[in-house]
């Protein structure tokens, strides 16, 4: 995986962020989601590197990146805080303006970065997400059943941490894999699935996951609500699973994003929630068209 990519630990004010870097062209920052690591981009990143300078990272709290120290208000795990960390990574690598593509939680970091640093984000791709504030504002019985983990992981510590730690195999097999992980034949080598499963064996990562969702239910939602009426200045590409939760919950996903954007495009893909793993070629092609059009 990641042949011809260099590995770096990039220093930020809060700690070191693990990155793999490769390719030449317009810079693009790739962000993974829950509960994965940068490995989610293992097949798509080399394709993007044919036309772009690719920086793919472990989000703070995950993989080999630093663990934010929890706080009662959960602000250290907010998408605003993570976006600031990753902006420092790109500065350290010499990229003052760049594109961002993020799946799941990474997409939330990406759109927060585009709102907070519009002079830095040249283009944004958000994969299988709608804004956090909209998720909570539209929450109903369907969300409670389809995306029950949003409320479960946001419960006060240490309840979800202890329950996950008591049977991580059940959590992985009956929840994470139920979202579609591993379903697309030929896309999930055993070593990759083992790496994803190992995420739940590290109590510091499980704590970061829960803090991430606690932030989502609190400060992230408040940040989105405070920005109601603002728009993302750069072009935005939204991709989502045609058979996943988003069309079931929201109908036309682009309608949810439209008030937040001035230049929006997007479509559903024939994948599970895990778009990048399931269809790396299709995702890479669409991001390349956004970031480095011919």
Radius of gyration: 17 Å
Task: Indicate the low-confidence ranges by residue numbers.
Answer: none
CATH class wording: Alpha Beta
Number of helices: 15
Give the strand content.
15-25%
Question: Into which percent range does the helicity of residues fall?
Answer: 40-55%
Q: Encode the helix/strand succession as letters.
A: EEEHEHEHEHHHHHHHHEHHEHH
Distance between the termini: 27 Å
Largest sheet: 8 strands, mixed
Class from helix and strand fractions:
alpha/beta
Q: Find the count of extended strands (DSSP E, 2+ residues).
A: 8
Mean pLDDT reading: 97
Secondary-structure blueprint of this entry?
Layout: E1 6-11, E2 16-22, E3 27-31, H1 44-48, E4 53-57, H2 79-92, E5 98-103, H3 105-116, E6 121-127, H4 132-137, H5 141-146, H6 149-153, H7 159-166, H8 168-176, H9 190-198, H10 203-217, H11 219-226, E7 236-241, H12 245-250, H13 253-257, E8 264-269, H14 275-278, H15 280-291
Parallel strand pairs: 3-4, 3-5, 5-6, 6-7, 7-8
Antiparallel strand pairs: 1-2, 2-4
Helix pairs in contact: 2-3, 7-10
């Amino acid at each position: 995986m990641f042949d011809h990519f260099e590995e770096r630990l990039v220093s930020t004010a809060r700690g070191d962020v693990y990155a793999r870097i490769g390719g030449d062209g317009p810079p693009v920052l790739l962000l993974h989601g829950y509960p994965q690591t940068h490995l989610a981009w293992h097949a798509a990143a080399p394709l993007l590197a044919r036309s772009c300078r690719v920086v793919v990272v472990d989000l703070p709290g995950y993989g080999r990146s630093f663990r934010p120290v929890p706080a009662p208000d959960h602000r250290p795990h907010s998408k605003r805080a993570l976006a600031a960390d990753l902006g420092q990574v790109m500065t350290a690598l010499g990229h003052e303006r760049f594109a961002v593509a993020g799946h799941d939680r990474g997409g939330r970091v990406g759109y927060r970065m585009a709102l907070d640093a519009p002079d830095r984000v040249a283009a944004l791709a958000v994969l299988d997400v709608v804004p956090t504030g909209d998720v909570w504002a539209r929450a109903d019985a369907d969300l409670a059943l389809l995306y029950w983990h949003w409320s479960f992981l946001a419960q006060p510590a240490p309840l979800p941490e202890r329950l996950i730690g008591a049977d991580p195999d059940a959590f992985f097999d009956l929840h994470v894999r139920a979202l579609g992980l591993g379903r697309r034949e030929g896309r999930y080598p055993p070593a990759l699935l083992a790496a994803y499963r190992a995420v739940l064996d590290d109590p510091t990562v499980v704590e970061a996951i829960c803090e991430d969702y606690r932030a989502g239910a609190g400060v992230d939602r408040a940040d989105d609500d405070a920005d109601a009426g603002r728009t993302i200045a750069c072009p935005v590409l939204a991709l989502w699973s045609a058979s996943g939760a988003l069309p079931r919950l929201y109908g036309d996903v682009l309608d949810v994003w439209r008030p937040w954007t001035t230049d929006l495009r997007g479509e559903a893909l024939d994948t599970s929630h895990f778009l990048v793993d399931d269809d790396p070629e299709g995702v890479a092609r669409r991001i390349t068209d956004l970031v480095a059009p011919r």
